[in-house]
Amino acid sequence: MPTLLLLNGPNLNLLGTREPGLYGSTTLADVEAQCRADAQRLGFELEAFQSNHEGALIDKIHEAGRRHKAGEIAGVVFNPGAFTHTSVAIFDAISGVKPLPVIEIHISNVHAREAFRHHSYVSPAAAGIVIGFGTEGYSLALEGLARKIAAAAR
Ligand code: CA2
Q1: Binned average pLDDT, 10 residues per bin, the chain of 154 residues
Q2: What domains are there in the chain, each with its CATH number?
Q3: Which atom of ligand 1 lies closest to the CA of 105?
């Protein structure tokens, strides 16, 4: 079965354990289970990976690009965490694996927060963006990704 990759960046392993006012009380394990069920409903397997390290995330994007060419990975939902606002290297990695579709997702509405969160290096390389729907945004992102994959196959 084709596979979707769920990627989460730095500090998202803390989801549900701190700052529930900002990020909710759902844990990363809960998010991954919810996404696995969503993916199956949409006809995909799900692989999930979280890292606090920029290079590990970049390596995973490169691997996803190779597996996309091999017909194994159909697309990626990615919350790059704070690297969203700092990382030209992640922009380059996503640009370098096109046409693999990558949906950027943020749990909080970054535009209603500090000015340094208003700019994303990732968005120009993303196939779509979901912002501010809490952890349910991951489900919306998977749904949108599945629609883009279906449209590209037509
Ligand atoms: O809203 C989002 O999803 C963010 O990507 C989350 C990042 C933040 O740097 C971005 O600006 C927006 C932070 C993730 C930290 O997650 C935590 C969760 C619980 C407790 C502490 C941190």
Answers
A1: 96 93 94 98 98 98 98 98 98 98 98 98 98 98 98 94
A2: 3-153 (3.40.50.9100)
A3: 3
